[in-house]
Amino acid sequence: MDPVTAAFDATPRVDFLPPDQRERTSYDGPLPIGHGQTCSQPRTVRAMLGLLEVRRGQRVLDVGSGSGWTTALLAHLVGPSGEVRGVEIVPDLVGFGRTNLATMRRGWARIDATAPGVLGDPEHAPYDRVLVSAEADELPVPLVDQLVPGGRLVVPVRGELLLVVADPDGPIVTSHGAYRFVPLR
């Protein structure tokens, strides 16, 4: 079984949905979690994690952690020798995500509030991988700067899913299809 499928099997989406959305857990689309935010479409999350190529023991940043589902998936992928930091700007979702994540008992993962105007987690950078579950208007250079050399960032920009690999000569950017997300704030 590939690692992403194993992570999905070990991290049921239903555990990260508000009670009024749990009956829709098998729906392959984004589901509302409150505050204008969503729990992303499973097929999209699977594609993003595939591009990210997370490995055991890595340090990963999850931008826009929302319900905590992607943070928990990433925690399964890095295992206890790794570290995952989720950041979320909506205070109520920070609490919701933390509560959901705690049920998974993956103590190497956490969700923190981020301050308005701060993109990512520069204080604890660099990271091997960065996942962004919100759509940017342009390539978020501050997140590229939070990668180790050779690190990977997956981010939707203007409806296009981008993979960015940090390279000393400048980021290497490739496009991987059209996707829709809530806006990155």
Notes on the protein architecture:
The protein is α/β, with parallel strands linked by helices and 185 residues long. The protein has a single domain (3-178), classed as Vaccinia Virus protein VP39 (Rossmann fold, 3-Layer(aba) Sandwich). 24% of the residues lie in helices and 29% in strands. It has helices at 3-10, 42-52, 69-78, 91-102, 141-144, and strands at 31-34, 37-39, 59-63, 83-88, 109-113, 127-132, 147-157, 160-165, 172-178. The strands form two sheets. The chain has a seven-stranded mixed beta sheet with strand order 5-4-3-6-7-8-9, covered by helices on one side. The chain has a two-stranded antiparallel ribbon with strand order 1-2. It is globular, with a radius of gyration of 15 Å. 44% of the residues are buried.
